[in-house]
Amino acid sequence: RGADGLAKEDLKKAHPLGKSPVITITSPTSTTPVVLAESGLITEYVSEHYAPQLIPTRWRDGQEGKAGGETEAYLRWKFYMHYAEGSLMAILLISHIMNQLKDGPAVPFFVKPLTRAVAGKIESAFLNQNLATQFRFLESQISTAPDGGQYLCGKTLTSADMLMSFPLMAAKPQLPEATFPKLRAYIARLEAEPSFKESVAEVEKLTGEPYKIL
């Protein structure tokens, strides 16, 4: 990110929107690289082509190819490919903007009483209720994971958990452990994953800065 918190301008060389993340995949079957933006699409595409072990079994026995024949684990996985950014990250971004309006460095101190009042009204009228709904839903999802598992789609880590890790770790300050014990324990499991720790170490090595979510 640049100093303004946005993706750097040179990312537009890879994708017209200049968004991050964006990946480019070269293939021997095509002379044109595949350029993918949007975290959900990237996660789904990479899982399908390079890490199918991170996708739950799709069909119940004898129900292959039939509408409604999918396993609960697979339908959850598919849901989270869209939910992470379509629902959860959108509301968390609004929350982040409200926090910046109240106490962000870009707001002059003499204006902050006004911006805090406006942000507070938005939070009480809309934001807090929606956040609580999202968090209660996720707490119940962990509680009812298929096969009594400790991950969103069951007993094993999937790419849905990886996709959900960013918004949930960003939301931790808004998740009191007494209210959302299973969700907080789930986040702790994700943070303890060796692959996550390795990724953080690689990011810090490349940037020369401590890793931070936002």
Average predicted local confidence, pLDDT: 93
- Quick one: biggest sheet? 2 strands, antiparallel
SS content category: mainly alpha
How much of the sequence lies in strands comes to: under 5%
Q: Globular, elongated, flat, extended or rod-shaped: what is the shape? A: globular
Question: Can you tag this structure with a few keywords?
Answer:
single chain, two-stranded antiparallel sheet, mainly alpha, 214 residues, 6 helices
Description:
The protein is mainly α. It is 54% helix and 4% strand. It is built from six helices and two strands. The chain has helices spanning 39-50, 72-103, 112-143, 159-171, 181-192, 194-207, and strands at 22-25, 34-37. The protein has a two-stranded antiparallel sheet. A hairpin with an 8-residue loop joins strand 1 and strand 2. Helix 1 (39-50) runs antiparallel to helix 2 and helix 2 runs antiparallel to helix 3. The longest helix has 32 residues, at 72-103.
Summarize the structure.
The chain is mainly alpha-helical. Helices cover 54% and strands 4% of the residues.
Per-chain topology:
Elements lengths: L21 E4 L8 E4 L1 H12 L21 H32 L8 H32 L15 H13 L9 H12 L1 H14 L7
Antiparallel strand pairs: 1-2
